[in-house]
Design brief:
- The chain has helices at about 20, 25-35, 55-65, 80-90, 95-100, 110-120, 125-145, 155-160, 165-175, 180-190, 200-220, 225-235, 240-270, 275-285, 290-300, 330-335, 375-390; strands at about 15, 35-40, 50, 65-70, 155, 310, 315, 320, 325-330, 395, 405, 415, 420.
- The longest helix is centred in the middle third of the chain and has 31 residues, at about 240-270.
- The radius of gyration is 21 Å and the shape is globular.
- About 50% of the residues lie in helices and about 10% in strands.
- With about 425 residues, it is α+β, with helices and mostly antiparallel strands.
- Helix 7 crosses helix 9 (about 165-175), helix 10 packs antiparallel against helix 11 (about 200-220) and helix 11 (about 200-220) crosses helix 13 (about 240-270).
- The protein binds protoporphyrin IX containing FE.
């Protein structure tokens, strides 16, 4: 069994390499063709990880319970050690580690099921469908104001639409007061900044803020998700502990807006850069759900999953992941795997799943499949439909290749999206 050598001197693909940040899909294609798994270094990981880029292998990593999210569940490995290393690598103040590392995304087995059950009811297809009119109303309000935000006819869609829409939706759902929402926007930006120097301070502010909200909800319950979670915690602390409650709120609000904003941004930019596809969608608006699906595949904002750890030796595509080794699923690699998608680099909003597969993995796969996928898709559909309807002559204000991006490994995010209205 051979270990494939990456291009760098260390033998590993460095995900912070500017060439890879500039052209992640090209880089993932090279990894995908080289071997089922390649070595990679990513910020925040304690050691080099295995990067898995082929569609079937990605589904194996995410669907096989021999891979765990919490290193403590690797038998006989210095799990505490891995945890310590992760805390150091990510610059997390140790006293706040439980808020970062003990959330739903890091839980396995019964713990994971327990946490997911507490919130999944709020995100079912039916509950999400009930929110649709409100999402549309928020979108229309923001678009009413968009021309006023333009200078010389050019407005930044990220600032005035793509961010405010999902942050308003998730904050209303969770129960974050309006006056606190701008802070969440800032915290999100700081946490995802390329230099995580301020990580500890931001975390302290966020945790303090959530604890304060919990006290307020206890005194004055509302009909939001936070009130429900506080109630579960107070009635039955075994089902939802102190730190778990805070972490759940933190996860939902951050995961609920940071990603969706970039689906709206990336999706709008992709359509405007493909006039044929845009014209087709304008002509046949009923294609919208399929278009959002294809945009998730083609330019989904999340390129990598959380790290998984092998709880025992596992074979992936004929190579062996040894017990305790870390694996990261490259969703963006799987989503352009020519083994599954014809002409994978082409954006085609009429693309149909081939019936054998459940299609793209932009929302992950398996037990940790995105809890908010239905909500995110709906927000994407409502946002793009309203935007295209309200602005029939919408155009990019700069060539697609010049759109400023946030150079973050594992993500595809625009820093600004200047549009001519
Ligand atoms: C999990 C992507 C929107 C909440 C995930 C995962 C991915 C993902 C890839 C799995 C990560 C892994 O397995 O390591 C996205 C994208 C979104 C989006 C691309 C937008 C376009 C949302 C929204 C919410 C949300 C709106 C709102 C609640 C969550 C939660 C998890 C999750 C709570 C963890 C689920 C678990 O561990 O069981 N998301 N997400 N996401 N997402 Fe999303």
């Amino acid at each position: 069994m051979s270990t494939p050598q990456g291009p760098a001197a260390t033998g590993a693909f460095d995900l912070t390499d500017p060439a890879l940040l500039d052209d992640p899909h090209g880089g993932f294609a090279r990894m995908r063709e080289r071997a089922p798994m390649v070595r990679g270094t990513i910020p925040g990981a304690a050691a080099p990880v295995w990067l898995v880029t082929r569609y079937d292998d990605v589904k194996t990593v995410l669907g096989d319970t021999r891979f765990v999210n919490d290193p403590a569940h690797v038998p006989g490995r210095g799990a505490e050690n891995i945890r310590e290393q992760v805390i150091r690598a990510r610059g997390i103040p140790p006293e706040y580690a439980r808020y970062v590392l003990d959330g739903i995304l890091d839980a396995d087995g019964e713990d994971h099921i327990r946490l997911r059950r507490l919130v999944s009811r709020a995100f079912t297809a039916r509950r999400v469908a009930e929110l649709r009119p409100r999402v549309a109303e928020i979108a229309e309000d923001l678009l009413d104001r968009l021309p006023g935000a333009a200078e010389d006819g050019v407005a930044d869609l990220m600032e005035h639409f793509a961010y405010p829409l999902p942050i308003t939706v998730i904050c209303e759902l969770v129960g974050i007061p309006e006056e606190d929402r701008p802070r969440w926007r800032e915290w999100g930006a700081a946490l995802f900044a390329p230099d995580p120097a301020g990580f500890g301070a931001v975390l302290r502010d966020m945790v303090g803020h959530i604890e304060e909200l919990i006290v307020r909800r206890r005194a004055a319950p509302g009909d939001d998700l936070l009130t429900g979670l506080v109630h579960v915690h107070d009635e039955d602390g075994d089902r939802l502990g102190d730190a778990e409650l805070v972490t759940m709120v933190l996860t939902l609000v951050l995961a609920g807006h940071e990603t969706t904003a970039h689906l709206i941004g990336n999706g709008t930019a992709a359509l405007l850069a493909h006039p044929g596809q845009l014209a087709l969608l304008r002509r046949e608006p009923e294609l919208m759900p399929r278009a959002v699906h294809e945009l998730m595949r083609w330019c989904g904002p999340v390129h990598l999953t959380r790290t998984r750890y092998a709880a025992e030796d596992v074979e992936i595509g004929g190579m062996t992941v040894r017990r305790g080794e870390a694996v990261v699923a490259v969703l963006a690699g799987a989503n352009r795997d020519p083994r599954v998608f014809d002409d994978p680099d082409r954006l085609d909003i009429t693309r149909e799943p081939d019936g054998r597969r459940e299609d793209h993995v932009g929302f992950g796969h398996g037990l940790h499949y995105c809890l908010g996928a239905a909500l995110a898709r709906q927000e994407g559909e409502v946002a793009l439909a309203a935007l295209l309807r309200r602005f029939p002559h919408l155009a990019l204000a700069v060539p697609p290749g010049d759109l400023p991006r946030q150079p973050l490994p594992g993500m595809w995010r625009l820093a600004r999206l200047p549009l001519r209205l």
